[in-house]
Amino acid sequence: MRPTGEDDMSQSEEAWSGRLGFILAAIGSAIGLGNIWRFAYVAGENGGAVFLLVYAVCVLLIGLPVLISEFVLGHRARGDLLQAFRASGASRAWSGIGVLAILVAFLILSYYSVIAGWACRYFWVYLTGHLPSLPRETLPAAFEAFIADPIAPVAWHALFMGLSAIVVTAGVARGIERASRVLMPLLAVMVILLAGYALSLPGAEKGLAFLFTPDWSALRTPRLYIVALGQTFFSLGVAMGVMIVYAGYMRSRARFGSAALTIAASDTLFAIIVGMAIFPIVFAFGMDPAYGAALAFVTLPQVFSIMPGGAWIGTAFFFLLSAAALTSAVSLLEVPVAAARRAGVPRVPATLGLALLAFLAGVPSALGSGTWSAVRIAGKGILEAVDYAASSILLPVVGLAVVLYTGWVLPRAEALRECGLPPRWADVWLAMVRYVAPLAMVVFLLTSALG
Ligand code: PHE
After folding, report:
1. At CA 118, angle to CA 306 and CA 201, rounded to 5?
2. Its pTM surpasses 0.90
3. I need a surface site. Which of 123, 207, 246, 279 has the fewest CB within 10 A?
4. What is the DSSP letter of 32?
């Protein structure tokens, strides 16, 4: 236990150990289920290479400017989400965006932890050798039975939320930063080894072609654009306050431009290398890449069960998935915790209380595939409906508000000074924030809505 005196430490005293700690924690937040589970399935369903291309354009034109904007807002307001949207002369309605961001982070955490719980459970069954002993044909049914169980998914969800709470109670530098310092390099090594192995399989070229040779006709699918936009926000971890809060723990003004570039590049590269691990394996064993959300939990285990050394690869893969999810969930939990601390609640009770609430909020998602499968919201199951509302509706709204506020409400001189970019690049960034990013977002949203 930590001495209780430190719980009362004021928010401004909590800080990263330095610039590297900040960048690693931000990368830890960015790299998560989104890069492995979500990227693989949305890329699989939306044409592979063409999706990757549109996604890369989204990261450059929208993701990066938004990321730098959040750093600017966060650093200026010392991580206070309500202050972040209060410039002199700005309408008070803007602070509603801060409240919305806290809500979105909480909402995403509630079901993120459910899926992370599935990943932990798969790690456990691989580690203990239960899954590899099942015949391949029974794996889809085994997954369905697990997620439909009235107790198991809730229990794993509780376990994962508990782990996240433990890291967050330990504090910014000693909990969050330390977890990222240990786990991020480990993940990088593991995913490179996994990709190296996948590429050595006979038939791997087909997987590479799927990921890197575009079929241009897929560009005509309107859905592609909104999915790529949603994936950009989700994967970079922007538009829900995390990066605003994290930048607030930076004592001095960091070169936010290069920090954002490092974070966006690591996040994208990680997703691509994971793709280079997953798709060659999927194609080498003749599976369908467009299997949807169950790709990581059904298709891959089927492949692991027939490939040599599959039990080990499976264990490694699900460790990767669980650990990456942990550093992301921690960042989501830190958003409401930071807000509660500002209201005077010490870190430990704030973390435990909010983790408990997020756990409860996630229970319907955990039960949505079984006990409560009769509940449909707009034709979707509970988990899918919450994911859709959060990532496809609320994230673009908050993201748009962030750039409009930074570009048009925050005094220009302040934005240019805070971003820490060399003058010429600072102008380019501000032009992107003012015109390119909002326009691109609106065009993408309309293309998908009207298509
Ligand atoms: N970026 C994380 C991922 O790719 C998810 C996340 C979203 C984390 C929002 C923090 C904030 O899985």
Report:
1. 25
2. yes
3. 123
4. S
